[in-house]
Structures are given as structure tokens and as C-alpha cells.
Amino acid sequence: MTALSVLDLSPITAGGTAxxxxxxxxxxxxxxxxxxxxxxWLAEHHNIPGVASAATAVIIAHIAGxxxxxxxxxxxxxxxxxxxxLVAEQFGTLESLFPGRIxxxxxxxxxxxxxxxxxxxxxxxxxxxxxxxxxELLHYFRPAEEGQIVRAVPGAGLDxxxxxxxxxxxxxxxxxxxGLPYAFASHFAPAQMIEAAEVYRARFEPSAYLDxxxxxxxxNVFAADTGEEAEFLSTSMxxxxxxxxxxxxxxxPPPRADLELSPAEEAMLGEVLSASAIGTPQTxxxxxxxxxxxxxxxxxxxxxxxxxxxxxxxxxxxxxxAFAAQPVD
Length: 329
Known about the structure:
This protein is of the alpha/beta class and 329 residues long.
């Protein structure tokens, strides 16, 4: 049976604060744990006014410390921004604090614009070294060898599942070659999702980490008790995404019915939201099941950018119940 997980950007809403976002993220994680979600992942982004999860490892500790059983991790850490040893130490620390509950997803994008990328790492060559950096990071989690000069302390010998994230065929090929689980960002870049899934499965090499492919797909859910309400609530994400593409990112705005978008922006949003369920519990049930069948994903990770925290909780509750084919009041 396909598993269900949560992807959270810890959104900062218009007029809100990061402190409120972190409290909301923890509240969502506690609800997700009760509703049966498998994982709660946070994503690294920088210099975006509507995203509070820049210091991703710190927020993971906050979430894991406030929950009991749900897996918590990064979806993901943008490895070109960091030295592999530092990431191994951070996630070795998290695994030591919360044994058996930590995941590490790795991406090769900077999670920011070019100027912010320069401020983070001082050069723009990190993405070219992504495969080598992943291999180096995996090495730090293996048991330390006699005479090994550089070790991750903590980290060496700990079981921290490493995932490759991607929105193109590159990540699919790398995950397959290394025998790692793969998560595709179909919730915002669905164009190559079917081809990437086929490449990953066809080229997968069994490894010490996995004996067969394991594929996660991103999926947006905007669920409410009526279709009109669900469509209205989804406009916060639409506004934020368009603002980001215009190069003027903003805090997550309140929903509005009268969006002013160009035809090109309408088309862009249509493509982005093609991996989405928007509507009533019955609509969401059908669209989630159709997407799971289309992709044959082992796991769906649900994104939901809503301005109102109570509405976001309700959407995730509907998604959990709908996917399990349970009645929703």
C-alpha cells in the first residue's frame, strides 16, 4: 500500500512571524503523527520571505523533539551549500538524539537565487560536484575504518537513510546508480515525473541501502468541505508561486478570488498544479488514487501551502482519511 507523508515549508504568512510558523509546523506534525502520516519533511530554502525552514536541521530537531513516532527529515538539504562532513555531523547528531526517526534527503539546487547562492557558498560550482559529495557523505555514515583521518562525530556507523531528490532525470540516474531511495518534486515540477520514474526503476542497482527501488512523489492537496472553498484556499500558493517566478518572493498571502495573472502565468500554474488534488474529500480521494496509480509510487509526500493554519490542518486530515478510503465528516 502506498504510504503518505508531509512536506512542510514552515510557511511565513503575510503579517506573521517565523516563530508562529515554527509553532504551526510542530502542531501540524503532531496532528500528522496521529493521522498516520509516515514522515514529516522540511525543505531548505534561503532568502524567501515566505519560507522559515532555512536552518533545516535546527527545525528538524524542533519537530522531532515535539513528536514521538513520526519520521522527521529533510526534503531536502541542498548539498552544494554545505560541506558533506558538516551535514554528516548534523544528521548524526539528530540520529543520536532521535534514534530511528531521522531521514536525510539531498538536492543539488541551491534553494535560492544566484546572489543568495554566492552568499551561501562563495562560488557556483557546488552543483557540479553533487555526485562526488553524495558519495563522500555516505562514506561518513559508514563505520570508521582503522587509520581513517576524518570522521563524522557523531555520524560514523549510524543508520541515517539518505535519499536523492530531484525534478529531472539527473537525480533519477544518480539514485539508481547508488541504490538509494528517490523522491521526485512533482508537486512543483511534474513535467518529467513519468520518465524519471521509469529511468530510476530501470537502472536501479541493488545496494547495501536498498534491494529494490523505492520511489516517492510530491503531490499538492488543497482539500476542504466544498470545492469552492478548496479552490479559494489554493490561491495563496498560486500567488506565492507567481511572485517567486516574477523574482519578487513574498510571505504567503491570504487567499483572494480576483487573481490578476497573465496567460503565460495561468499556463505555468496549470502545469505546476497538474500533480494536485483540489476539492472536496470525494474529489481528493479520486485524484490522489489516480495519481498513485499513474506513478506507481511507493509513497506520496503531500504539500499544502495554505494561509490559514486551521484550514491547512483540515486539508491534511481530509487527505489522510480520503487516501485511506475512510469517511470524512
